[in-house]
Design a protein that fits this description.
The complex is a heterodimer. Chain A is of the alpha+beta class. Helix content of chain A is 30%, strand content 21%. Chain A has a 5-stranded mixed beta sheet. Chain A is elongated, with a radius of gyration of 22 Å. Classes of the chains: A alpha+beta, B mainly alpha. At the A-B interface, helix 2 and strand 4 of A face helix 3, helix 7 and helix 9 of B.
């Protein structure tokens, strides 16, 4: 009898474990299919990252907008982290008002293109007053003007396999974002801040403004945008230089 | 003290046997998971705070802007724990929230909150309130009946932590998430802004640390070994710790 009970217990336990494991596997497959798994899903930390990313993406399915503020709320102090690139190439661009600078857009797009700063400024623009919050704890409000990334990507034609947009700057801090953020109406390629040319410490000539995520995702000194289906073969394969440094890929927090 | 303990032990209705289950398995399990995740949240929270140990009110703040409080702590940047600290913070937050939900749902279903945490009618009389307050002020060793039930101050404190401080911690944490507040802007605007949420988050964390220290002191006063064994095995050996 006791042997039978042991066997029964064993079978029940095994069935329970199998059901649990396949349940998790099915959930993971479904989550992956609906784009709910971030590139930094590995290891123990990856569990928390995946839960946060999936939960927020489901909550945001109606393309929620980041808070916008009034002109009177614009901060007098706008702190920055780090200095503009000290490379000769960047300094030369800076001193020639970025006349030779180009933004290259390629990867999974129908018409790979490149744009001068003047050309970008002639495209439809959007101006928004939003909060920039750094992961360190500080924050400021500023007015940003730029081309919606949505508009730029659609004008070059996004191929159906596209899943991420990789943003390469003139410094080492590249990042990538998913299509939900890339096509979001508040995601801007900003060339002006508080009604003036984007200052060098804030990322001249062009920076990403992604107000639904924390500061470090807002890549400065942009020079190259690449649409991809996976970030696995870029750098260490986790989707960004900050991620390689130990920070979350999804920084909607 | 032994006398008073005996005198009051008489009031215990139908004193339970030494083998009775003091804490249910769910209370014990969630207690220790919460303990570990709280400690990890605290340590990783300190790592995050040290990147900018200044507090502000409203939506904005930073070096060069007027601050509310400059904490007497160093600015610690370029620390390899800052990124992982954040990963750990959110992983433990998920564990704490899921554990808290299990505890809350089971607490309602098993009447744990009503029976063990809502103050008893007998505890709300003026005399018993005065008695329990005076016992605590004199750091008196708790009477024997408290090996089986929580006193008024314990109940009120636990309820405040479970339904006040911890939810406020989660609320202020979510209020700092630009993703979450894009869906529910009121979560941050009702608090007074992004930096206000951060400041409240800090002070609620401090309150939880004060609670933890008082809690541990009280456990020591009541008999550390007996209390910890009761919270691990569920059983309390009433005879052993009392003279």
């Amino acid at each position: 009898m006791s042997k039978l009970m042991t066997r029964r217990t064993l079978i029940t336990t095994a069935l329970g474990v199998a059901a649990g494991a396949s349940g998790i596997a099915v959930a993971a497959r479904l989550a992956n299919r609906y784009g709910l798994i971030p590139p930094d899903n590995g290891g123990v930390f990856g569990i928390g990252e995946s839960l946060t990313y999936a939960a927020q993406r489901m909550l945001m399915s109606h393309h929620s907008l980041a808070r916008e503020f009034s002109r009177s709320e614009i901060s007098k102090v706008a702190p920055v982290n780090g200095d503009p690139p000290e490379t000769e190439a960047y300094q030369r661009l800076l001193h020639t008002a970025f006349a030779d600078w180009r933004l290259t857009v390629d990867g999974l797009v129908a018409r790979p293109s490149s744009f001068t700063l003047e050309e970008l400024k002639r495209l439809p623009s959007r101006t928004q007053i939003t909060l920039h919050a750094c992961e360190m704890g500080w924050s400021f409000i500023a007015e940003w003007t730029g081309v919606p990334l949505n508009y730029l990507l659609r004008s070059v034609g996004i191929l159906p396999q596209a899943r991420y947009v990789v943003l390469f700057p003139l410094d080492p801090w590249w990042e990538s974002i998913d299509m939900a953020d890339a096509l979001h109406p508040q995601t801007l390629l900003a060339y002006a801040m508080n009604g003036e040319e984007l200052p060098a410490p804030h990322g001249a000539p062009l920076r990403l403004r992604l107000p639904r995520q924390i500061g470090y995702k807002n890549v400065k000194y942009l020079s190259h945008i690449k649409v991809v289906d996976t970030v696995k073969n870029i750098g260490k394969g986790v989707g960004g230089a900050n991620v390689e440094d130990g920070y979350s890929w999804y920084a909607g927090i | 003290m032994a006398e008073s303990a005996q005198v009051r032990a008489v009031e215990v209705p139908n004193a339970k046997t030494s083998d009775s289950l003091r804490h249910s398995a769910i209370v014990r399990g969630t207690h220790w998971i919460t303990t570990i995740s709280f400690l990890v949240l605290l340590l990783s929270g300190i790592a995050i705070l040290l990147a900018h140990p200044r507090l502000y009110w409203g939506d904005v703040g930073g070096v060069g802007a007027p601050s509310l409080i400059d904490l007497p702590l160093p600015f610690v940047l370029h620390v390899p724990i800052r990124g992982p600290g954040r990963y750990l913070h959110f992983l433990s937050a998920w564990i704490l929230v899921i554990t808290g939900l299990v505890y809350a749902v089971s607490g309602i279903l098993t009447h744990h909150f009503r029976k063990s945490l809502l103050p008893d009618k007998s505890q709300l009389g003026w005399d018993s309130i005065r008695q329990v307050a005076s016992d605590h002020l004199h750091l008196k060793r708790p009477p024997k009946e408290e090996a089986f039930r929580y006193n008024l101050l314990q109940r009120v404190t636990y309820l405040a932590v479970i339904f006040g401080l911890v939810p406020l911690m989660i609320w202020t944490g979510l209020a700092m998430s630009p993703g979450f507040t894009s869906v529910f802007p009121a979560v941050v605007s009702t608090l007074g802004g992004h930096q206000a949420a951060r400041t409240i988050h800090f002070f609620v964390a401090v309150s939880l640390v004060v609670f933890l220290m008082v809690h541990i002191s009280m456990v020591c006063l009541a008999g550390f070994r007996r209390c910890v064994i009761a919270m691990i095995t569920g059983r309390t050996a009433s005879g052993t710790d009392y003279p």
